[in-house]
């Protein structure tokens, strides 16, 4: 191999890990969002705990390396990690589901995944994906229940609703729940990642119409508590800093939600138009 090629291939091989933003692995104070809904993720990789008298629901296992951090956050709040009974995810990318096998091993939790992402989760991701990035591959985990759009997940008096918001992945899931009289929406991801093919995509022919449906759904959704798969979707760090000031809940942010959804829809439409002219 020529020296330049060797350097290039070395750079490419280390790139995926090097590309992980620091905030993904940085601990963050766990906190109550509202009612029995808590944030137990890192500075940007969001995990949520719904704590109930019959055990807990955990959304997003993040990376394998994130599991001790999630566990510590749950314990800091005074709950037991081993009381996690149901594990859910935002979508089948490593930054939200790579830690699932480890969490299931440690807690014996049941794993519920949207039907359209369940094969990827059980196979360890899209092996023949054209997108060369580490987030498409991860440790596989067995799915106990395959969810359909609108399915309810119930535990100890709490109900979460799985809403299919596909495009980012085929089974990308937005979780909604009524909590303390508020509508919580945990957005799965409305983002078009670099390298995504929106026009004539052989692997995923309906990708563009799926995004269209996702934006339609997100715009119509009743919303009070704006949350998402990454803290950065809803400006979590800044809102956390305002927690407890003036007795207001900074996570109630209808305007911010609609601004975010509109901005992401615009980004999708710009990319779609660009790819159509290529
Ligand atoms: Zn993703």
Strand order in the sheet with the most strands: 1-2-3-4-5-6-7
Return the CATH architecture: 4-Layer Sandwich
Overall mean pLDDT stands at 92
Distance separating the two termini = 34 Å
Number of helices: 8
Low-confidence stretches: 4-18
Radius of gyration: 19 Å
The total domain count is: 1
* CATH level 4 superfamily: Ribonuclease Z/Hydroxyacylglutathione hydrolase-like
Record field, number of beta strands: 12
Describe the structure.
With 278 residues, the chain is an alpha/beta fold. The protein has a single domain (23-276), classed as Metallo-beta-lactamase, Chain A (4-Layer Sandwich). It has 8 helices and 12 strands. Zinc ion (ZN) binds at residues 91, 93, 135, 168, 189.
Sum up the structure in keywords.
alpha/beta; Metallo-beta-lactamase, Chain A; five-stranded mixed beta sheet
Short description, anyone?
Helix content is 32%, strand content 21%.
Secondary-structure topology with pairs:
Layout: H1 3-18, E1 31-34, E2 37-39, E3 48-52, E4 55-59, H2 67-76, E5 84-88, H3 94-97, H4 100-107, E6 110-114, H5 115-123, E7 145-147, E8 152-155, E9 158-164, E10 173-179, E11 182-187, H6 207-220, E12 225-228, H7 236-241, H8 254-276
Parallel strand pairs: 4-5, 5-6, 6-7, 11-12
Antiparallel strand pairs: 1-2, 2-3, 3-4, 8-9, 9-10, 10-11
Helix pairs in contact: 6-8
The protein binds zinc ion (ZN).
Zinc ion is lined by residues 91, 93, 135, 168, 189.
